């Protein structure tokens, strides 16, 4: 157990254990009966860092309060700069521990300040009194600051806003001395075509908290809750709304000077780069369209030439077909009637086809005796009586190897699928 000079006892490493924060010699402050919630924290007693954080832990108003409070107190030096106590500097450091959690002390405190109701602000009174007391000790920054918001605020600060209109910001407003740091918050969690808002504020009560913040490179400048600003002008550039504000009772300066200076800043350079890129893309698209048009014309010309060549070849083929048809008709003309038709010569010993639907036969059968054929009428061979009459009743034409053949002894019968053997012994 470690007891700090502010009465802060560190026990264990649990993040959500309320017993890890113990206040020695402290008690709950009395309730305030103020009517105005935004000013009620001024009447709250100034207490230690532990007492200020204890109501937030008990009511679980934010996440990881115990862990962040331990870390903030451990990271705070014993003798902070700007004559702040360790508790006041730790309260500022705890506020800057925003992180990625949407329920951090930074988000939940500003949400309660925006609503400005006593029921929501009462648990924050002790912490507000401690952090605001520390902020008032830091020297003020009397120069221009910038604030980037990833929201579209044209309804509040656009064309409908009148010059000289008063705006009261109840939250603890965080700004930066550098325009480049504010630009990082413009595109944070925003869509591609959505609008964002960039504030240029000239004031005198903002305090630079870089020495008490976890983000020293951001050059953060903070305004206390309830600071009033006067609207001067606004202008829309691309998808960004530029708003010119000045703190109440601040010397009036024309907003045009900042707009002119913004043109030379990195923001204007980025907008010009986007415009140049857009022009380059347009020129590239036009070049592609011209190339496509040229290729289309070339394809159309090539297609026309191919069509003409095809038509020419088709005409040549038609002409050739016509010539062939003419020659065919001339060849197919009938012969004159005076010329007799030639009669084919008949050779009796030459082979000739057999009867219809029968395989090819020789005029002399393979098994016929070697004799001359009989002469018939018109010197034509009689296929029905190709053998002598005396053999007609004795020779079986269907069974040439039949056992009843009278001329020779029966021969061995062969399979019907084998071709017949030629007989030479006759």
Report what the structure shows.
InterPro entries: ART. Its EC number is 2.4.2.31. The chain is α+β, with helices and mostly antiparallel strands. It contains eleven helices and eleven strands. The strands form three sheets. A five-stranded mixed sheet has the order 4-7-11-10-5. A three-stranded antiparallel sheet has the order 1-2-3, with helices on one face.
Summarize the structure.
This is NAD(P)(+)--arginine ADP-ribosyltransferase. The chain is an alpha+beta fold and 426 residues long.
**How are the strands of the largest sheet arranged?**
4-7-11-10-5
Unreliable residue runs: 1-35, 253-257
Largest sheet descriptor: 5 strands, mixed
How much is the average pLDDT? 74
In whole angstroms, how far apart are the ends?
Answer: 141 Å
Q: Give a count of the beta strands, DSSP E runs of length 2 or more.
A: 11
The percent range for helix content is: 25-40%
The number of distinct helices, counting runs of at least 4 residues, comes to: 11
Strand content: 5-15%
Which word captures the global form?
elongated
The sequence of SSEs as H and E is: EEEHHHHHHHEHEEHEEEEEHH
Q: Over all CA atoms, what is the radius of gyration?
A: 58 Å
Structural class: alpha+beta
